[in-house]
User: Fold these one by one.
Assistant:
Number 1:
Amino acid sequence: MFTTVMRPALLAASRSPRVERTVTSMATTRKMVRRFVAGETEEQAAVVTADLLDSGRYASIDYLGEDTTDIERARGTVSHYLALLGTLEGLPGSTGTVRPLEVSLKLSALGQSLPRDGHAIALEHAHKICTAAAAAGVWVTVDAENHTTTDSTLGIVRALREDFPWVGTVLQAYLLRTEGDCRDFSGPGSRIRLCKGAYREPAEVAYQDRDAVDASYLRCLDVLMGGLGYPMIATHDPVMLEAAAGYLRSGRRGVDGFEFQMLYGIRDDEQRRLVGTGAHLRTYVPYGDQWYGYFMRRLAERPANLAFFLRSFGPGARR
Ligand code: FDA
C-alpha cells in the first residue's frame, strides 16, 4: 500500500506548487523538517558540519533548491555556494587523498531547467563553484535528478572534469541505463555516488519493483568496486551496506578505496558505528529555506517517516 499508493502520491505532491504552499505554511512541518535539514543559513550548516567532523564523519553540504526557471534565482544559488565555501574556511581541510568537505550541487538549481541555454548556464555556474571549491580544498559532487536531466547532467560533469578531475556525480540504480553509466564512469579518478534513486520515474526508463532496484544496485556496486575510481556508497539499507563491507573483508577494496554516505538525520547510530569500524563515512547535509521537495522525498521513502509526520498533527501534538 505504501509503495503502490502513498509513495507515488507523495512524489507527485513534491512537484505541486499548491501542495507546497499548504505544507510549507504549517508550523508542525517546520519542526519535523529540522530532523532532516541542518538549518536555513550557511552559519547553521557550518555548525552541523563542524559537529560531524568532530565525530569522525565527513560532510557533503547541499544548498537546497531545484527546478529553477528564474535566472536571478540560479545566480542567487551560486552566491549561496560561494558564501558557504567562505564559511567553511577554518574547518579542517584535506588530510590525504580524501577531502573531508564536499559540496553537493543540483544542476536544476543552477539554471539547467531554464528554457533557453539552461545546459550552458548550469555549466558556467557549476564551473564558478568548482573554481571556489578548488581554492578552498573542498570537493564537489553533482546530484542526480529526474531522468530527463541525466544526459545533460553527465555531459556537464564530463566538461567540469576536464578542469577539475575530482568532480564527482551520482548514478541512480533504479534507472535501466545506470549499469552502463557505472562502467563508463569506473575509470581512474572518477568519484561516483551510487544511490537507489528518489524520483518518480516511468517503467520505460526505471525499474519499478523494489527487488529489481536492489538487484541493480548490487550489480552497479560490483562494477564500481571492481573499477579504478572512488565509489561512494549512498544508502541506509543494511543489505547494501553489508554487500559493500564484503568487498572490504575480502580485500577487493581497501578502507581508503571507497566511502559510505548517508543523509543527515537518518540512521545516526549506524553512521557512528561505521565510523567506529574505521570506514570513511560522509553525511549529506542539506540546508536553506527551499526544503519542500527534499522533505517530501524523505517522507516518500519510508512509512515510519510519514507516520511520524502524521502523528505530529494528532491530539496533544505540540505545534
Ligand atoms: P531504502 O529506502 O530502499 O530502505 C531500505 C532499508 O534501509 C529499509 O528497509 C530499512 O531497513 C533501512 N532504512 C532506510 N531508511 C531507514 C531509516 N530512516 N531508519 C532505519 N532504517 C532505514 N537520490 C537521487 O535520486 N539523487 C541523488 O543525488 C541522491 N543523493 C543522495 C545522497 C546520499 C548521501 C544518500 C544517502 C541518498 C541520496 N539519494 C539521492 C536518495 C536515494 O536515492 C534514496 O532515495 C534513499 O537513500 C533511500 O534509499 P536507501 O538505499 O537508503 O534505502
Note: The chain has a mean pLDDT of 92.
Number 2:
Amino acid sequence: MSAPIKPATSESIEEAAAILRAGGLVAMPTETVYGLAADASNSDAITRLYEVKGRPRFNPLIAHVTGPRMARTVAEWPELGSKLAGAFWPGPLTLVLPKKPGAAIADIANAGLDSLALRAPAHPAARTLLSVFGSPLVAPSANLSGTISPTTAAHVAESLGEAVDLILDGGTCTIGVESTVIAIDEDKAVLFRPGGLDRAQIEAIAGPLGTPDEAAAPASPGMLKSHYAPNAAMRLNVTEKQPGELLLGFGDIGGDLNLSAEGDLAEAAKRLFSGLRELDARKPDRIAVAPVPEQGLGEAINDRLQRAAAPKD
Ligand code: TXA
Ligand code: MG
C-alpha cells in the first residue's frame, strides 16, 4: 500500500518526527528536491533507506541540520566553513567537513568516511521537522538510485510510495536541482557537485573553487557514472529534433516542452526534472535537449543532463 501523502502542517510534522524516532522513513520537501529522511544516528533505519533506494552503500548521505549550532555537534568547523554557512545557510549548499569523533551519526550514514556532508535546508517544512526532531536527519533524494530526482510529493509517491512511511507535501520545490556540494580543505573550497547555489556566489567568498583529486579518493561517489536518468535515451545540445525524438527546449528553441521561454536559468532548473519526467512518460525513442548555457545555474543543469545522457553501464 502506498504511504499517505499529507500536507505539511504542524500536526503532520509532529507525526513525521514520531515516525522518525521509531526508526521509520519520511519523505520531506526541501527547496532543492524531496529528500527521504531517516534518523542520522539510527543505523537500522539508514540500512533500510539504502535498501529502498537501491543505493550503493559506498555512496555517503547528507546530514540535514537546523543550522550551524546543530552542525557543530557532529563536525569540525574550519573558518572558511563557518563563513560559507554564515552566508548561505539555510539554503542549497552542502559542506563536507571532518566528522567529529563520537558524533551521534551512524558510520553507515557517511559510508565509514572521516568526513561528513552537512546541509541546513531552507524549506519551512524541513526546518520545522528538523527542529521538532531535534537532531540531524540524513536525506538523499527521495527516488530510486540513478533515476530522475523528485520535485513534487507525487513524484515521490510514484517511485517510493510503497517503501516509505509518510510523504509530507510541501508543494513544488522552488530550486529544483540538488544542493551544491563543497568540501573544505583547510582554507580551500573544492567543488564536488554543482547545484542550486551557483559557483560565482561561492567564489565571491571562498576564491576559485578547486576540483576533487580523483586519484586520491572516491571523492563524491554520487558524482560518477549514469544518474538522474529517464527510461528513454538522450541526445544533448540539439537544435533540431529527429524522428522519434521529443525535444526539451530552452529559450528560442521551443521544443515539445520548454524549460524557460525567457531563457531564465532559475526557471529552467526548477522545471528540469519534472520536464524530463513528462517527456519520458510519453515514451519517445529518445529525448533531445536544447543547448543550455554553462553559466550560473546552467552548470548544475548541464551536469544533470550529462549524467542523464550517460550510458547506463
Ligand atoms: O539538495 C540536496 O542535496 C538533496 C536534498 C534532499 O537535501 N539531497 C541529495 O542527496 O541530493 P544525495 O544523497 O542524492 O546526494 C548527496 C551527494 C552525493 O553526490 C554524495 O556522494 C555526496 O553528496 N556526499 C555525501 N557525503 C559525502 C562525503 N562525506 N564526501 C564526499 N561526498 C559526499
Ligand atoms: Mg540523488
Note: The mean pLDDT is 94.
Number 3:
Amino acid sequence: MPNMKPDKAPMPTQPPQERRHNFREVALGYSRETAMEEATRCLSCKHKPCVSGCPVHIEIPSFIREVREGDFEKAYEIITRTSSLPAVCGRVCPQENQCEARCVRGKTGDPVGIGRLERFVADTHNAGEGAEVKKPQSNGHKVAVIGSGPSGLTCAGDLAKRGYEVTVFEALHLAGGVLVYGIPEFRLPKSIVQREVETIKALGVKIETNMVIGRVLSIDELMDEQGFEAVFIGSGAGLPRFMNIKGENLCGVYSANEFLTRTNLMKAYREDAATPIMHAKKVAVVGGGNVAMDAARSALRLGAEEVTVIYRRSEEELPARAEEVAHAKEEGVVFRMLSNPVEILGDEKEFVTGIRIQKMELGEPDASGRRRPVPVEGSEFVAEADAVIMAIGTSPNPLLKATTKGLDTKPWGGIIADGNGQTSREGVFAGGDAVTGAATVILAMGEGKTAAAAIDEYIRSKEKK
Ligand code: FAD
Ligand code: SF4
Ligand code: SF4
C-alpha cells in the first residue's frame, strides 16, 4: 500500500539565526530512513507524468522504487543514465515548476519530493567509493566545447561516453560556470560541483582553464588549425544588465555577477581571502529572481545589518524559487515590493549613500502575460544604503559573435540555433544560456545533451561521405 500522507517529508535545515552568519549549506538533506519513507509516497504511475516534466527525462518512478527498496546504487545508476549532475539538480532545479509540477500526488497534497530524493541518492553515492568510471575507447574524432557550465559539461560528458576526444575551454580558473561563480556555497557546496566535474574528467574529458575563446584562440583556429571537427558553444549569459539610471557608476554599486563572483569564486567571505569587497551595512538588491535572492542572502552573510530586495512587481510575480524567497525571509531579508529605483545617491567622495525609489502599481498585462508595473506619480522617497547590487538580468557576451565567421545572433545577443543546437555556421553547435538567455541548470543540461547527439550525427554523416 502506498503511503498516502499528504505532506512531503520536511527537509532539515540549519536554523535561520545561525545560518545567516555562515556560508555552510542551508538544507541538510534527507536521512536514509526519511528518504525511504518519502519514496513510499510515489504511486509508480504507469503513464509517468513526472518524467515528461523533467527536461532530461530521468526515469523517476524507477529510481524512486529503488530508493524504496533501499538499493541506492541502482537508483544512482538509473538517474545517471540521463543526468550527469544529479547532486547539483537535486539541489537547485526548480522542481516545483518541472517534475514535481506534474506529479499526481500534487493534486491533493504535496507532490513527491523528487528533487530531495535525487539529492539523497547522489549524495549517498558520492559519500561512498562508488563504481570506478571507465574511460570509453576513443573513436579518434576531436570536439571542442566552449564553457564549463552545465550545458558544456553535459555535452562534453555525453560526447566522451560516445568515444569522442573532448576538450573543454573555460575562461575562468575553475570549471563549473554559474555553479561555481554564481550560486553560493550555502545553496550548492563547491565540493559537490568539483566531484561532478571529476566524474566527467574520468570519462577522458580534458578541461583547459584560463582559456578565453575569442581572445587566446578563436573558433576558426580551433576548427581550421587545431583539428576539432565540431565545436559546442556553452558560454552562458554572463554580461550583466544595468538600469542606466543616475548614480550607477558610484563606489558601492555592483552587478550581482561581480558581487557573487567575488564572494563565491574568490571566497571574499573568508578572513584569509585577498579579494576586496565592501562589507556594507545597508544593502539594497534590485531584482526579484534567484540571482537577487542569492545576492541578498550573501550580503547578509558578509555582515550587512539590513538587506532589502527592491522589486517593481508584487510578491505574486517574484520569479525566484518560492523556497529561496522563504529562506531569505526567514533569514531577515526585507522585501520592498512595487518599488523601482530611479536614482542612486552618493556623497562628495562618490560613495553610495542612498537610493531614490518610486512606488509602482500594476496595470494591464504586458507581452509576458504579467501585469505591467506603472509608476505612481509623486510617490518618490529616499532609502539609506551604502551598497546597491543590480540583479536585473544578464545577456550573452558578444565576444564569440565578434570573432567567429558566420555565427548569427539575435539582436539581444543570443546565438541563433535550431532545435538540435546547430548554429548558422557548419560544425558549430550551441546551447544553454548562450542561446536562450538566462534560464535554468536543467534546461542548459538538456540542450547540451541534445547538441551532443546532433554533433555525433554530424560527424558520422561526414565520415560516410
Ligand atoms: P554558464 O553556467 O553560465 O557557464 C558558461 C561558462 O562559459 C562559464 O564558466 C564562463 O566562464 C564560460 N565562458 C564564457 N565565455 C567564454 C569564452 N569566450 N571562452 C571560454 N569560456 C567562456 N538555475 C537553476 O536551475 N536553479 C537555480 O537555483 C539557479 N540559481 C542561479 C543563481 C545565480 C546567481 C545565477 C547567475 C544563475 C542561477 N541559475 C539557476 C541559472 C543557471 O545557473 C544557468 O541557467 C546555467 O548555469 C546556464 O548554464 P550554461 O552552461 O549555459 O552557462
Ligand atoms: Fe526533477 Fe530536475 Fe531531477 Fe529532472 S533533474 S527529475 S526536473 S529535479
Ligand atoms: Fe510517483 Fe508522482 Fe511520478 Fe506518479 S507522478 S510516478 S506519484 S513521482
Note: The chain has a mean pLDDT of 94.
